[in-house]
Amino acid sequence: HVKHNGKNSFAFYHRKMKDVMNEKIEIEMILREALKKNAFKLLYQPQIDLNSGKIHSFEALLRLKDHSLRPDQFIPVAEETNLIISIGRWVAKAAIEQFVDWRNKGLGEKTIAINYSNKQLRDRDFIIYLTQLVKLNNINPELIEIEITESFLLENNSETMAFLHGLKEEGFRIALDDFGTGYSSLNYLTYIPVDKVKLDKTINDKFLNLANNRVMDSLISLAHSLKLEITAEGIEEWDQYLQLKQGGCDYIQGYLFSKPVEANAAEKLFDHPFIMLNE
Ligand code: C2E
Ligand code: MG
Ligand code: MG
Ligand code: MG
Questions:
Q1: Alpha carbon of 217 to ligand 2 centroid (Å)
Q2: 3-state DSSP of the chain
Q3: Is this structure's pTM higher than 0.80?
Q4: In angstroms, what is the span from residue 115 Cα to ligand 1's centroid?
Q5: What does the pLDDT look like over 56-68, one tens digit per residue?
Q6: Which atom of ligand 1 is found nearest the CA of 117?
C-alpha cells in the first residue's frame, strides 16, 4: 500500500515491481531448464467413484522435481511466456506413458485427467498430437479426460468450440474444472460438449454443511438433468463425503481420501476400496 506520496514510497513501489519482475524471470528460467533437463514430474490424485467406493480416475498434477514452486505460481508464468505449449505436450505425453506403464504392469486401466490451459489453444496441433499418442499406444480415448476451465468458455468463440468438438470427435472426454468460481452460466452447460463438471473446493466448502445442503443436492440434480457427471473437489471432511454420497454425487476428490501422490504410490491405491458401501 502506498499511502504517502514522495520519494520513499515510490522507491518502495519500484523495488516491489522489480521483485515481481525478477521473480517471473527466474521462474521462466526454471521452466526452460526443466523442459531441457526433463525435470518435470506428474503427481496423481484419485477421484473416487461413490457408487463402487473405488478409484475411477487419476488427475495428473504437474510438479517440478527440484523446486518447491507450486503450479499456481509457475503455470501463470508458463502461460505468459508460451512455455505452456511445450509443457502441455510434455504433460500429455507423460500422463499417457504412465497409463501404458500401469497397463503393462497388469494394474488395469483407469481414466487419466489432464489439465488444459486456455493458452494451449495456440498449439494448433494439440488434438492431433494427443490422438497420435493414444492411437500409437492403443488406448481407448474415452479413458483420457481433458480438464478445461470456465474462463476457457468465456473466450467463447469459434476456436474454443471447434477445439471442444474436435476433442469429442476423437473420442476424448471433457471435464469442466473449478466449476462455480468463474462467471458460471447455466446457459453454456446446455451447448458445450462436456461430460463432467468438477465443483470447486470453495463451492463445496460453502454448500456442504447442514444449513445449505439442499443447495448442494440441487447442484447435483442439475448436473444430472443435463446428463453431466459430477465430481466434488477438495473434500477434506468425512461429513462432506457423507452428504455428497447421500445427494447422489458421482465422484469425489480430496485430501480425505488422498493427496496427489507419486506414480509408484498411486499404483498401490489402484484397487484399494476407499469406502464402506453400507455405512
Ligand atoms: P486443479 O486442476 O483444480 O487441481 C486441483 C488442485 O487442488 C490441486 O492443486 C490439488 O492438489 C488441490 N487439492 C486436491 N484436493 C485438495 C484438498 O482436499 N484440499 C486442498 N486444499 N487442495 C486440494 P495443485 O496440484 O497445486 O494444482 C493447482 C492448479 O494448477 C490446478 O488446479 C490446475 O489448474 C493447475 N495445474 C496443475 N497441473 C497442471 C498441468 O499439468 N497443466 C495445467 N495447464 N495446469 C495445471
Ligand atoms: Mg484440474
Ligand atoms: Mg479444480
Ligand atoms: Mg484450479
A1: 22
A2: CCCCCCHHHHHHHHHHHHHHHHHHHHHHHHHHHHHHHCCEEEEEEEEEECCCCCEEEEEEEEEECCCCCCHHHHHHHHHHCCHHHHHHHHHHHHHHHHHHHHHHCCCCCCEEEEECCHHHHHCCCHHHHHHHHHHHCCCCHHHEEEEEEHHHHHCCCHHHHHHHHHHHHCCCEEEEEEECCCCCCHHHHHHCCCCEEEECHHHHHHHCCHHHHHHHHHHHHHHHHCCCEEEEECCCCHHHHHHHHHHCCCEEECCCCCCCECHHHHHHHCCCCCCCCCC
A3: yes
A4: 9
A5: 999 999 999 999 9
A6: 44
